[in-house]
Design brief:
Largest sheet: 3 strands, antiparallel
Number of helices: 33
Helix content: 55-70%
Strand order of the largest sheet: 3-5-4
Strand content: under 5%
Structural class: mainly alpha
Distance between the termini: 53 Å
């Protein structure tokens, strides 16, 4: 009974703190953003639906054309005649399907598609494989069509859905993830430490409340908040889409799950329940970690950062090591996306049981933790000296005072230590991955097993063709045999180049290695005769731009004698011809380059947006500004009794915080380079990075870059890229701090300042990418994605040639100075208490 009373009291506190209101606002904004984004794409729904249809029509027409040619030459056998009749029926159904799509009669799509799939099955029953939809893929497509028909469901645009059930699924995939857990931890993770920070813990100790009752009630209230979070996303998702569309929620809509061996169709309602269970299970363990750390630490910020670090390390190690991906490992719970995408095996119920067991163990440990009143590392000093010296200007003394205050609180030191731990663990993971990737690539080169198998298969094909030729006496097989011999010659040459590349690489001769990769590049370009062998990586799939840029890259690397970075023969570019997104992702993964050298490690740090981590940490540490001097302690009133103005206090804070933030960021970059240099090598300053040139630049009279398929490009050095990234990182950091500090002038509560600033920046970036592309070069939010600004990709995507490093520097620095001036001017107009 006592625990229940405390639990209800905790919920009331959360309600009065308006945290559930913030959850509702976040939920509504996410739902509206996803729904509006998808709704804007509905006009092209028919075109997307016809993409697969057009591919099927091309294949069917090709097969029908070949069989018709045999029929014209009177060489058509009875089986082939039946196949020709089937292709005619297929064409007829595809034409009907096209008309249905043009009329938007979506309820008739799957009955016609099912008929088409049955004809494909009949075609293969005659002993010949159809060029598309074979094996498991055919069974999978037919099973989906039968599901739609049996449940009386209509075709929907799954890429950009607007129906309630698919919107809720998309929301679940986004919100019920690590990002959602992080939001929950930010909003509710201080439920225990706030009692210590606000000294209400002393009041609680005077009440007849046992420690375990307080721990459990707070822990249960956190789990209750998690359930409210999940319920809000589901309810709001259904409500918004039901109001603005004619769709109704259909829990039986099929969700396809598959692996390499089989597939499984899951109703969307089951999928949503399943991912919710995984999410809540992860939250049970997460908040248990928060609780045990909160029982040790008095500071909310350090508790959240340390929890994030523990979860990140555990998750990364689990993700990278298959033996750790077992049910008993609590960090397996955070692989929510991977777990929800696996085929159910009946053991889903074990995950919440495991999380409850681990949660109970941690809560039990938290209960028996001794009361630690002073932790030399994590707790702030209880007494801060005022100014020691009266020498110098007010601004200098304020900066000195702010700097001493930050250092004495020890948060700054603790954050830098945590960042050092993060970089250490991240570099270890990168070093392991890149080493494994290099070893595997060189091992494959030295053995060339795949090529050996192709040679063996080709030789078997020759034997079969020879036998058929003897039996039929037809000369058509001579050409086939000649083509296979050409393929064998091609495979042998490729094998020799691969083995030589591996051997010469050990001798640090990079030329042979690049000759091998160039051989594959030129093969993809169609410059080498493969004897009719079908290549997965061809120019009509990869795109001419990708192939030619890859060739140019290898020539640059050879010219400058640069050590290879593994793996990948090609450069994934934005100009490609992949119609299947899964194949595109596979290609990008196969050609992902990893290296643990100093310069390339820093390049990867920026490429994968890890620079947001120090920006966010500095944002939360320093962004409170004047709002952090308000609150219950009202230290701003004490500062106003001193001979200083609010405007000078503002300048002192922003200058001190900017200097410390820049020091943290640049120090982090330097440590990354040092780690890489110590454990591998410094790196190659002249390693080539692809830069996309906008059409306006390409069409200018003084353009000196390269052109492929009408698209311009050139290469910049890795060193140049890193210099630009450091400059834009510093300017982005200063802009975020300036904006947040100015907001703190008008908003009293620090949490509200952070929330408004995040909302403003995220909304600004979203608006820039969706509706403000013409003026994107004038908006600071564009340059938050500075890796794509530096390589020119963003200028192509937004079709704005003015998006470049120079404009980014001018806009970010100009607006930062403008915000500081505005803040100084506003505060100068206020009366100062003395």
């Amino acid at each position: 009974m006592q625990t229940m009373k405390i639990f209800l009291f905790e919920l009331k506190k959360l309600w009065r703190q308006k945290k559930f209101l913030w959850v509702s606002i976040i939920c509504l904004l996410c739902t509206v953003a996803i729904f509006q984004s998808n709704a804007n794409e509905q006009e092209e729904m028919m075109e997307r639906a016809q993409e697969e249809l057009i591919l099927h029509q091309e294949i069917v027409n090709g097969v029908q054309r070949d069989l018709s040619e045999l029929d014209r030459q009177q060489e058509l056998q009875e089986i082939q005649q039946n196949q020709l009749n089937l292709t005619k029926e297929m064409n007829l159904i595809l034409m009907q399907l096209n008309r249905v799509m043009e009329r938007e009669e979506w309820e008739n799509v799957y009955p016609l598609k099912h008929s088409f799939l049955e004809l494909v099955e009949q075609y293969e029953a005659y002993g010949e494989t159809f060029p598309i939809l074979t094996g498991q893929e055919l069974s999978m497509e037919k099973a989906i069509a039968e599901w739609f028909i049996s449940h009386n469901l209509s075709y929907e645009d799954e890429e950009y859905p607007v129906s309630p059930h698919l919107i809720v699924k998309e929301l679940s995939d986004s919100a019920f993830s690590l990002a959602g857990l992080f939001v929950l931890m930010l909003l509710f993770g201080n439920i225990y430490t706030s009692e210590r920070e606000q000294r209400t813990w002393l009041t609680l100790q005077t009440q007849p409340i046992r420690k375990w009752e307080l721990l459990i009630s707070k822990y249960i209230s956190l789990l209750c908040a998690t359930l409210i979070f999940t319920a809000l996303f589901i309810v709001v998702g259904i409500a918004v889409t039901t109001i603005f569309t004619d769709y109704s929620f259909s829990g039986q809509y099929p969700i396809l799950l598959q692996d390499t061996q089989t597939f499984y169709i899951l109703p969307v309602i089951t999928y949503i329940i399943r991912i919710t269970i995984f999410f809540v299970s992860a939250a049970i363990f997460l908040f248990a970690v928060v609780t045990i750390l909160s029982s040790l630490l008095k500071n909310t910020f350090i508790t959240i950062i340390l929890t994030s670090f523990i979860i990140m390390v555990g998750y990364s190690l689990t993700e990278l090591n298959d033996p750790l991906q077992v049910i008993g490992n609590p960090f397996q719970l955070f692989r929510i996306s991977a777990l929800s995408a696996t085929i159910p095996t009946g053991d889903d119920w074990i995950y919440p049981c495991v999380s409850i067991i681990w949660g109970s163990i941690l809560i039990l440990c938290a209960n028996f933790n001794p009361e630690i009143r002073i932790l030399s590392f994590f707790q702030q000093s209880s007494h801060i000296q005022p100014f020691k010296s009266k020498n110098g200007s007010i601004l200098n003394r304020l900066m000195f005072f702010e700097g001493r205050k930050v250092i004495r609180k020890k948060l700054y030191v603790q954050i830098n230590i945590l960042l050092l731990l993060f970089v250490t663990v991240s570099y270890f993971i990168l070093f392991q991955q890149s080493s494994d990737q290099e070893t595997q690539y060189l091992e494959d080169l030295s053995k060339m097993e795949e090529t050996e198998n192709l040679i063996a298969l080709s030789e078997e094909s020759i034997d079969r063709y020879e036998d058929v030729k003897k039996q039929s006496g037809e000369t058509i097989y001579d050409d086939l045999i000649a083509d296979v011999y050409k393929s064998i010659d091609f495979f042998k040459e490729r094998r020799e180049k691969g083995i030589e590349a591996a051997k010469e690489y050990e001798q640090k001769n990079w030329t042979a290695f690049y000759h091998y990769q160039l051989f594959d590049n030129h093969t993809a370009a169609g410059e080498i005769d493969t004897g009719g062998f079908y290549l997965d990586n061809r120019m009509d799939t990869l795109g001419k731009f990708t192939v030619e840029a890859s060739i140019t890259e290898k020539e640059w690397l050879m010219k400058n004698n640069i050590q290879p970075i593994f793996t990948g023969t090609f450069i994934p570019t934005i100009y490609h011809q992949f119609s299947d997104e899964e194949l595109h992702q596979t290609f990008k993964e196969e050609n992902r380059k990893l290296d643990s050298s100093g310069l390339f490690s820093l390049y990867l740090f920026n490429k994968y947006y890890l620079y947001f981590i120090p920006i966010l940490l500095c944002f939360f540490l320093f962004g409170g500004g004047l709002a952090s001097e308000r609150g219950k302690k009202q230290t701003l009133h004490l500062l106003q009794t001193q001979p200083l103005t609010l405007s000078s206090l503002f300048l002192g804070k922003i200058m001190t915080n900017s200097i410390l933030s820049i020091f943290t960021g640049l120090g982090l970059f330097l440590i990354i380079i040092l780690f890489g240099s110590l454990f591998n090598r410094f790196g190659d300053w002249f390693y080539p990075i692809l830069y996309y040139n906008h059409e306006d630049i390409v069409n200018s009279s003084n353009y000196s870059g390269l052109i492929s398929s009408g698209n311009g490009y050139h290469f910049i050095t890795l060193g140049e890229y890193l210099i630009y990234s450091i400059i834009l990182f510093v300017l982005c950091l200063l802009f975020v701090l300036a904006l947040t500090m100015v907001l703190s002038i008008f908003i009293n509560n620090a949490l509200t300042v952070f929330s408004v600033s995040i909302l403003f920046n995220v909304s600004g970036y979203y608006a820039t990418t969706k509706i403000g592309m013409d003026i994107a070069h004038l908006l600071p939010f564009t340059y938050f994605d500075f890796p794509k600004v530096i390589n020119g990709e963003l200028s192509i995507v937004m079709d704005n040639a003015k998006i470049n490093v120079l404009h980014g520097c001018l806009v970010l620095s100009g607006l930062s100075i403008f915000l500081v001036v505005i803040g100084y001017f506003v505060l100068s107009k206020k009366k100062t208490r003395k």
